[in-house]
Structure formats: structure tokens, C-alpha cells
Design a protein that fits this description.
The protein contains 13 helices and 16 strands. The protein has helices spanning 5-9, 49-52, 61-73, 85-97, 111-128, 149-152, 181-194, 218-230, 283-287, 308-323, 326-341, 374-383, 405-426; strands at residues 28-32, 35-38, 43-46, 102-108, 136-140, 173-175, 198-203, 207-208, 214-215, 234-238, 262-265, 277-282, 350-356, 359-364, 386-387, 394-397. The mean pLDDT is 96. Bound molecules: pyridoxal-5'-phosphate (PLP).
């Protein structure tokens, strides 16, 4: 075993982890393609792309070379009063790829901060136009938009991640995704009632990720966008998880022909190599900040904004989307996930099986006692040589897009096997 593991673990505080009872984390030594190599030489096939980032697999030589070249010339420079080629090129490329006139890019270093910037943009947009009362944000049940205080206030209050802090968070307005006519009337009424206080609606288009891989159709998304327009409210699309091909299109909004006023990107933006996020505004949003008044400017600027290494990685990732058939690979993964996860529907303890793009989710029903033994499931997956990490009530697969059919079958086979074992234990 590695000599750094236990001495280091004594000083690490891990995410979302009860440090007293959680099983020890696995030491990873290296990564390549869809495989993680552990310190003891074992290999795991990766089923979740490191929190949905590693869309080209790990250590892609093209991204590595781009970051190495950037490291040799300009690893980082502050982004106020100075700019650099990787950020300029990346902004231009994102503007070209994104739908409509989403063409003004503000870079940050994490998804949560990208959402915070979107909220600031939305609220200040209305203030700059003389509507200072429009400050509230409408979000949806099962939504997830980050872990900082402003973004926690937009996460499903019942999913339990953030209830502890309820008293310290801004008060926002939760809505149901309007998936049928009755709910559409209710959503319209909500915007009609609160419209004068509401700056924006925020939505994860087509798939709500960390809230449990809940899926809705393009018509629902299109209705939300249309309702925002009719009620004079901005639409923020949080595509931090769905962006860059995960749902089958480069951006999920495209499937509904929706052009949000602001879009948030991160996760797969750098192909899973370096932290970077972008908040991209449409022209009319940006133009509301142009004024002789200095106070009308957007007051935000993270120290490591537009880090040049991260921008170089993102440019290399976009090269790969251009050169390699990523969306075709996603379509193949979608078909295979649908076929190979379908048998899970018949298992005891399974409530639902859903697939969309390169996302396959099996929702579990609770064991007697109302709990799901997540640690037990996670341990079993690792024993079977796959990296699959269920959370809340879902066992899900979001593999790198470069995975081949055999490796994907190993992942779906492991899911079927572990849930079959669970069904037997439940009986
Ligand atoms: C992961 C995620 C975030 C938060 O991103 P971080 O980089 O973890 O801060 C926000 N919104 C969505 C939809 C996400 O999936």
C-alpha cells in the first residue's frame, strides 16, 4: 500500500462524508481512458466520469499536450486589465457553439460560482433597467445548483443536503416543473402573482442531476422558457451537468429550441482536467450593463478567473468535440444503456429506470426501515471492478463518451448484478 495514504488521511476532510463511519476512500495512483488504477494495482472501470466531467476519458493526450504547452508559456495571469489568448479563443468558440446570441462569456472556477454570477447578472440586469424590486429567483423541486449559500437556497429543500442552513439562506420561490396542463396553469399563475418581485427562473434543462437524475421533456422546458418571456422574467439555464453532449445534443436547451437569457457551464468544459466555469449572457443582458455609471458594471472577479491552463484544456476539449464523433458515441451509449438497464425494472427494490443521452439511472425504493445502504452498494461495485457511486435513491451511470460497448456492458452488468443481489436480500 502507499506510504502517503494513512498519514495524509489523518488530515483530510472529505466531501459529503461522515468521517466517523464512512469506509476509507480508495487511493488512486493514475488514470487513462475509462480506467482508474488504484495504488494496489487494481483497475476500476469508471462509470461516472469523476462527477460528470471526464467526457473524453482520463488523461487524453490531446488535452495533456495543450495544458503542457500552456504551462511552458503562461500558466496564469490575473484577468483584470489583462487578457490572454486561451481565454479569448475559448470565449469566441463558446459564443459560436451556443444557441442564439448567447455570446458574452464571464469565466469563473466552479459551477456554484458560475450560478452565483448568473444570479448577480439577473438581479442587476433588472436594477439597471429601473426595476430594483425584481430580486427573487424561482427554482424547481429536485433542482440542484451548487453548495454555496446563494445556490443552496435554489436546491430542493427536502433532499436534505442543505436543510441545516435553512435559517441562513436567502428566501427564494420553489415551483414544480410544469409537466402537464394543470401544472402549467399553476406555473403561469405563480409567475403572474410574483412576477414583479422575480428576477429569473433557474432550471436544469431536461435532466435534474444531483437532485436524483429526474428527467423532463423538451415541451416542458419550452413552456418554462415561454412563460418567462410572457411574464418578463429572465431564464437561467444551468447546463453545468447537461452541457457538452451529456443529454445527446451539445447543449440540452437545443432540444427544445430554447435560448435562455443566461447559461451556466462547467463540469465537462475542460474535459475533466482543470476547474473552470463560464456564465454566458445574451446580448440584451450584457447591454443592460453598458452605462456611463460605474455602479452599473458587474462587480465580480475571482482571483483565478479564466486561468490560462484551464482555458487551454477547455479549448483542447472543444477540439475533440470537433474532431471525434462524440454525439454519435452518446447516441450509442443511450441505446445500450436503455437495453441493458431495462431488466432492472423487474427487480424487487427498483422503483424506476430512466435513460437520456449518456445518463442511465435506476431509482431504488427504500429498504425496510426507510434507508438505502449506500456504503454497502458502493463497496460491492468497487469489489466488482467498477467505479459507480450511488447517491440518495439512485444508482446511475454517466460514463466517459469514449467508452466502448464491452466496457459499458461491464458497467451495466455490475449494476444488474448488485441490484439483483440487493433484491434477493430484500426478499
Ligand atoms: C455540479 C453542479 C453545480 C455545482 O458545480 P460545482 O463546480 O460543484 O460548484 C451546479 N449546478 C449543477 C446542475 C451541477 O450539476
Amino acid at each position: 500500500m502507499s506510504d502517503w495514504l494513512n498519514p495524509g488521511l489523518a488530515h483530510l476532510w472529505l466531501p459529503y462524508t461522515q468521517m466517523k463511519t464512512a469506509p476509507a476512500p480508495l487511493p488512486v495512483a493514475s488514470s487513462a481512458g475509462v480506467r482508474l488504477r488504484l495504488a494496489d494495482g487494481r483497475e476500476l472501470i469508471d462509470g461516472i466520469s469523476s462527477w460528470w466531467t471526464a467526457c473524453h476519458g482520463y488523461s487524453h493526450p490531446h488535452i495533456r499536450a495543450a495544458v503542457e504547452a500552456q504551462l511552458a508559456t503562461l500558466p496564469h495571469v490575473m484577468f483584470a486589465g489583462l487578457v490572454h489568448e486561451p481565454a479569448a479563443r475559448l470565449a469566441q468558440r463558446l459564443a459560436k457553439l451556443l444557441p442564439g446570441d448567447l455570446d458574452r462569456v464571464f469565466f469563473t472556477e466552479s459551477g456554484s460560482v458560475a450560478v452565483e454570477v448568473a444570479l448577480k447578472m439577473a438581479i442587476q440586469y433588472w436594477r439597471n433597467l429601473g426595476h430594483a424590486g425584481k430580486q427573487r429567483i424561482v427554482y424547481f423541486r429536485h433542482g440542484y445548483h451548487g453548495d454555496t449559500f446563494a445556490t443552496m437556497a435554489l436546491c430542493d429543500p427536502e433532499e436534505g443536503m442543505h436543510t441545516l442552513f435553512a435559517g441562513s439562506m436567502p428566501d427564494q420561490i420553489m415551483a414544480e416543473l410544469p409537466t402537464d396542463d394543470t401544472m402549467r396553469r399553476a406555473f403561469d399563475l405563480l409567475l403572474e402573482t410574483h412576477g414583479e418581485r422575480v428576477a429569473a427562473v433557474i432550471v436544469e434543462p431536461l435532466v435534474q442531476g444531483a437532485g436524483g437524475m429526474q428527467m423532463h421533456d423538451a415541451a416542458t422546458l419550452a413552456f418554462v422558457a415561454d412563460a418567462c418571456r410572457r411574464h418578463n422574467v429572465l431564464l437561467i439555464a444551468d447546463e453545468i451537468m447537461t452541457g457538452f453532449g451529456r443529454t445527446g445534443r451539445l447543449f440540452a436547451c437545443e432540444e427544445a429550441s430554447v435560448v435562455p437569457d443566461i447559461i451556466c457551464l462547467s463540469k465537462a468544459l475542460t474535459g475533466g482536467t482543470l476547474p473552470l466555469a463560464a456564465t454566458v449572457a445574451r446580448r440584451h443582458v450584457f447591454e443592460a450593463f453598458l452605462s456611463a455609471d460605474p455602479a452599473a458594471a458587474l462587480m465580480h472577479g475571482p482571483t483565478y478567473m479564466a486561468n490560462a491552463l484551464a482555458c487551454a484544456a477547455a479549448n483542447a476539449s472543444l477540439d475533440l468535440f470537433e474532431r471525434e464523433p462524440r454525439l454519435e458515441q452518446v447516441a450509442d451509449i443511450e441505446a445500450q444503456l436503455a437495453t441493458e438497464l431495462a431488466p432492472c425494472r423487474a427487480l424487487a427494490g427498483v422503483a424506476d429506470v430512466r435513460t437520456k443521452g449518456a445518463i442511465g439511472a435506476v431509482e431504488l425504493s427504500c429498504q425496510p426501515g426507510g434507508t438505502i445502504d449506500l456504503d454497502g452498494l458502493r463497496r460491492r461495485f468497487a469489489e466488482l471492478g467498477v467505479w459507480v457511486r450511488p447517491f440518495a435513491k439512485v444508482v446511475y451511470l454517466m460514463p466517459p463518451f469514449v467508452i466502448d460497448a464491452d466496457d459499458l456492458s461491464l458497467l451495466t452488468g455490475a449494476v444488474r448484478r448488485v441490484l439483483t443481489e440487493r433484491a434477493a436480500a430484500l426478499a
